[in-house]
Design brief:
With 167 residues, this protein is mostly helical. It has a domain of 76 residues: Arc Repressor Mutant, subunit A (Orthogonal Bundle). It is built from seven helices and three strands, in the order ααβααββααα. A three-stranded antiparallel β-sheet has the order 1-3-2. β2 and β3 form a beta hairpin.
Length: 167
């Protein structure tokens, strides 16, 4: 049995497949595994988010602000891997829903800071138990789930560095 390019040990050059039938299949691509896992994860999260009345980007924004309130739009967009041009309309919607307030920074009027309202804090509290649902849905024991989460985060960080030419 020949090895597929995705199975090449570190330090070895990938062997070219001898035929089209030996070429890597869709299921052999890490990027597809991550992409399709994200879609499956979203399906598990969907009822939770519907119950909370927010989208996933809105929910992770609430979590990020709960961890560190009064962040700048720029710091939030960096933390959440979203463009500032995406953040602004989303923050406007969250503000209209009563979950956040946006204000100009006192020291630099060009900077906009975002803070959770009491309703935003209550939304975060309401969503706290839902993490257990996703761990259970994964079919992994909690300790394996944490190991996998850390490995995926390390993969993401390494890919970010490579995309910036830092790898």
């Amino acid at each position: 049995m020949s090895r597929k390019p995705t199975d090449t040990p570190p330090g070895e050059s990938p062997k070219q497949p001898a035929s089209r039938s030996e070429a890597a299949k869709l299921a052999d691509f890490m990027c597809f595994s991550i992409y399709s896992a994200n879609l499956a994860y979203s399906r598990v999260y969907k009822p939770v988010l519907e119950q909370l009345g927010v989208t996933y980007p809105q929910y992770i924004t609430i979590i990020a602000l709960w961890e560190e309130d009064r962040q700048t739009v720029k710091s939030l967009s960096d933390k959440l891997f979203l463009e500032p041009s995406t953040m602004t309309p989303m923050l406007q919607r969250l503000e209209a829903m009563g979950y956040v307030t946006r204000m100009r920074d006192h020291e630099d009027e060009r900077v906009v800071r975002v803070a959770l309202t009491e309703a935003g804090r209550q939304l975060r509290e309401k969503g706290l138990g839902f993490g257990e649902l996703t761990v259970a849905a994964s079919g992994l024991p909690p300790d394996e789930f944490r190991v996998l989460q850390k490995a995926v985060a390390r993969l993401r960080d390494n890919l970010q560095k490579a995309a910036k030419g830092e790898a």
